[in-house]
Amino acid sequence: MPAFSSFDQRGYRSISAREGYAQWAETYEHTVKNDLDLWLLSEVRSVRWSEVARAADLGCGTGRTGAWLAAHGVREIDGIDFTPEMLERARERGVFASLATGDVRATGLPPAHYDLITTSLVDEHLAELAPLYRESARLARPGAAHVLVGFHPFFIMKTGMPTHFNDRTGEPLAIETHVHLLSAHVTAALAAGWQLAEMHEQVIDDRWVATKASWAAHRDIPISFVCVWRRPA
User: Can you give the pTM of this predicted structure?
Assistant: First the structure.
């Protein structure tokens, strides 16, 4: 697996994901563009959201994905995140059946219970992908889908930009970032018994540049992706 340090062009002070998201929770919703993650969910065609009875949102954060799922007809959503400060924001949305502090690799949620598992902008903080895919497979009912939205490895390698935010003093802080090639996702998911049903990639396009002109230098570089994995029925 490539090391992020081989590509780092920013040299920001790096902190753990738990510490980083605890600090970022207050401003997270104001700094993450919908095009990064939610737009990709709207591109998915193989999942009929309104037919999903139970979903598990792993690494639910402030509840962005959960709110999108609820708005598109998913009836019951359980959220897991290891940062209490992010869960506080998620709880305010009022769309989750349950919220709990936990690890996406060992959630404690019931096995074979969910029609849908979602993971959004989480994988780059995991040193290994296999435990995540094994856990989502454990949670999945036959025929269930795992929809994973990730920070594109090519963007990280091309720009040398980690997941980062500005703290209250204005200092940019990097959150521990790992580079996972798309082939690593395929290997880990297949080993856990998932089958790839669909994939889309988001590039820096005119929509991005219109709202953030400084990103024109990154035009046409893929920044995020979504994979839809399916559990055999």
Answer: 0.96
